[in-house]
Please model this.
Amino acid sequence: MEGLQDKLRRPLQDLRISVTDKCNFRCQYCMPADIFGPDFTFLPKEEILSFEEIERLAVVFSKLGVRKLRITGGEPLLRRHITSLISRLTKIEGIDDIGLTTNGVLLTKEAENLKQAGLKRVNVSLDALHDEIFKKINGRGVSSNVVLRGIEAAIRAGLGVKVNMVVQKDVNESEIIPMAEHFRDMGVTLRFIEFMDVGNTNGWNFQKVVTKKEIFNKLAAHFELEPVDPDYFGEVAKRYRYKDSKTEIGFITSVSESFCGSCTRARISADGKFYTCLFASKGHDLRNILRTYPDEGPLVDKIRSVWERRTDRYSDERTEESVRRKEKIEMSYIGG
Ligand code: SAM
Ligand code: SF4
Ligand code: SF4
Model:
């Protein structure tokens, strides 16, 4: 089957699969506790794709050109028996890389099982080492030590580890240098993510963003850095290396230097909706097709027609007005 290109000639290469919309954190920039409180209604079980349905989808996407899968959420390690999904996905022909993005809380328990199941890498989110700052950000009072122990367990298990830090003005800027030092010494890549206007609940505005340039200037006052060339078309992070070591840092510059021109990524929500942009307001239902037709044909036709018509360029075109648009999907639902 031929690979797919959208209208802007961007190939379909990566697929992010959200396996749950639930989370054990309430990060203020993603699931603010006052909105995602005890009365918040998450997806009911019957609406969530089964592992068999996710596998069928992944097979079809791989035939259409996808080579990389990333499991995400909500918090993907909250999905029961997630390792059995990973073992199924590793057997799909054409998929050469499976990663998972996690807040790290359950990694100490799960790292070895994930590795045994065939997972290659984890991206662990950690926004501060300083306990008071981190406890406040994660909204559940969880200490950074819990996540640090998870990261160590992942390294011991032989998983590739990168750490993601969302930087917010006046919240955790003071943690940029301590985080950089800590992970440089551990030989772990740290990636700084610009705070994004995903969803409608996190009170985002341009003033709360710390740009790559600002972060880079802080780092450059402490460390000698040199740029690293991208490994492949569509690589999202802008990478640098500490001059005196092999350890890298990266920047995800969705706000200050958008990269829609090389966006090769599709996303599936836990209830089987297909999104062609993180900032979309509408997904395309694949669950109904999965549950109605046992053969691949209708699914292939749907995915093909959606991707071939795709013209998304939200970050390239971001304006004060688009930021205020009210119907954007939430990050915890689409998985980042
Ligand atoms: N729960 C997992 C975790 O936190 O790693 C996976 C899902 S989470 C939605 C995926 C990534 O999105 C995390 O690295 C998180 O920090 C990032 N994220 C969430 N909200 C964000 C925002 N408003 N701006 C930038 N990154 C955000
Ligand atoms: Fe949960 Fe991840 Fe969102 Fe934090 S960023 S609330 S850990 S889904
Ligand atoms: Fe891709 Fe949409 Fe992000 Fe642009 S804004 S890089 S099209 S997900």
About this structure: DSSP finds eleven helices and twelve strands in the chain. The longest strand covers residues 160-167. The chain has a mean pLDDT of 95. The chain has one domain: 2-334.
